[in-house]
Amino acid sequence: MATQHSRSAARIMMAPAVILLLGWMLIPLTMTLVFSFKKYLPLRGGDLGWTGFDNYVRFVSSSAFWPSVQTTLIIVGGVLLITIFFGVLLSMLLDQPMWGQGIVRILVIAPFFVMPTVSALVWKNMFMDPVNGLFAHLWKAFGAQPIEWLSDLSLFSIILIVSWQWLPFATLILLTAIQSLDSEQLEAAEMDGAPPLSRFAFIVLPHLSRAITIVVLIQTIFLLAIFAEIFVTTSGAFGTRTLTYLIFQRVLESQNVGLGSAGGVYAIILANIVAIFLMRIVGKNLDT
Amino acid sequence: MYLKNALRAVTALTLITTTSAFAETITIATVNNGDMIRMQGLTEDFTAKTGHTVEWVTLEENVLRQRVTQDIAAKGGQFDVLTIGMYETPIWAANEWLVSLDDLPAEYDKDDILPAMRAGLSHSGSLYAAPFYGESSMIMYRTDLMEKAGVTMPDAPTWSDVEAAAKAMTDKDNEIYGICLRGKAGWGENMAFITTVANSFGARWFDENWKPQLDTPEWKDAVSFYNNLLTSYGPPGASTNGFNENLALFQQGKCGMWIDATVAASFVTNPNDSTVADKVGFALAPNKEGVDKRSNWLWAWALAIPAGTQKEAAAKQFIEWATSKEYIELVASKEGWANVPPGARTSLYENPEYQKVPFAKMTLESINAANPDSPTVKPVPYVGIQYVAIPEWAGIGTAAGQEFSAMVAGQQTVDEALAKAQANTAEEMEAAGY
């Protein structure tokens, strides 16, 4: 039973952590907001004064803005589709009793432990390289012309690389969900004569919906900020410039802190729109 | 016994205090290139000579550029010596971010620094960074493939010679590609090369009033030629190849020719890494018939001191040590002449030992053929050969690089790429207040 006294003591003891965490978030956020209203060019003498909404207008009216939003959404959507589809498949497969299950599970999870930069380099140089890559050799073995993955199918290639990395995460969460499925329910349905597809659609999938929601939410948060894979493979060329990458180019390549900060604020807004949208549509599942 | 030990301790203490009164610890930011890694290994020599100790912050090129730019722009004071390129030096010097190196002692022999390097690292007549190593670009070609194809490479070829040789050597069925060139987007990747091609076709980035010139016929000729050369005789996926990718292809024997940085010469002729080490010839970067500028660039990694450092004297001593003639001899004595930092000092090229290195002569000729003050035929308002030394260049160059990369990949025509690059450049320049 907490007394008035112990409650205020708890508040005092928690205060440093709360203040630290608030500062941790608020200081960078405030700085981004302040810079976004300034003409701040480090290589041209630094802070050149306030400019009002100029940076915001310039960022949105630049020809690169809408394509970059579109690219971001395509990548996020593509990766989500692939990881959830194959995640469900793999998790059901891994749930089956089989020989060497432990090893297979570790192998499936392995990509998650590889750093994004490393995995992007490995994919770029070992698989997708049109001269030395594994795919090029495969294609040639069948007498076909190797595909120039990163330039001809650039967006698909990046979705593929990122999906490979996030599939283990989806699989892992979905596998735990599947393991918690009551097998008696499935057996009862089977005895009632429900075919496998119906059993999947009416029992397994609804049971997984909560896990899928978690996968969608968590992955979306990380995928909106995807950067390393693009930096390593295409450097934003061939229509793979996401919003994050555009901001990076504005701040660090063009050395325009004000413009980049305005882009950062847009990114926060976009992330929030996507998050609210997701919460509305799929978040309902979390309540049940 | 006790007395002896006490005496020893006192002597040691005195030694430590007296040396530490003069000795300082300087922090140096540098790039993770082979020559710089070697320099770190030799730091003991510097410490032995001066008593100063050194802390290294070694970073990848792009990261280094961002870190030191942020540090110096925000006056962070993290570093006492910076490794910067020829692009940054005049811009930073103009902002008064760097300490002038004009007062280095006479025995340092500043006049020994190659004139092209001094020009590129100076601002209004004062030297602001000392070249650690310098480079130009040149043609590296396979002598065996040229012989097999029955063509010869003159020492000073034209673009027609290069195209003919590329055509003759290309054998796509056996994965031999006539020419490997940069196609990967980036101001320091494909744009470095494309800008030099443009120079050799008489094109320029800006006219005297800073108006972008990418809509001129010279640019169209240059970019069309580059695009045709690379798509007809280049390796597949050339639009994603940068320096490292092309180096690997050349070392594997898949390129007939490669036009790139002179420092690559020591990598392609190193038998440990290269399968074609003994079959490489060198020639000057080409020009177009009738145009009096070659397509070679000029670059230096140089050491500079940020204004406001507390340890300016020690930092100067370090720069003196690392870019001196003695340092070159030190490396030569430990690692051989082929591994000394090239392209910085005239005396190196007068050294008979160094003249035996196969690429020494062509490197010097290439460097001497470059003039950052006058990169192309027509007058320009900027300094720089494969870049334009203004702060906006990195953004402009990279955006244009992406258009040309998409062009090489076959996703847009030469005209479309040039029109987009022109529009974006005009937009950026207007925003920057030109």
Automatic annotation (TrEMBL), chain A:
It is found in: Cell membrane. The keyword Membrane applies. It comes from the Bacteria. InterPro entries: ABC_transporter_permease, MetI-like, MetI-like_sf. The chain crosses the membrane at residues 12-37, 73-94, 106-123, 155-178, 211-238, 258-282. It is a multi-pass membrane protein. Keywords: Cell membrane, Membrane, Transmembrane, Transmembrane helix, Transport. Residues 69-278 form the ABC transmembrane type-1 domain. The keyword Transmembrane applies. Belongs to the binding-protein-dependent transport system permease family. This is Sugar ABC transporter permease.
Automatic annotation (TrEMBL), chain B:
It comes from the Bacteria. Pfam families: SBP_bac_1. Coiled coil: none annotated. Keywords: Periplasm, Signal. It comes from Roseibium porphyridii. Belongs to the bacterial solute-binding protein 1 family. Residues 1-23 form the signal peptide. InterPro entries: Bact_solute-bd_prot1, SBP. Gene3D superfamilies: Periplasmic binding protein-like II. This is Sugar ABC transporter substrate-binding protein. It is found in: Periplasm.
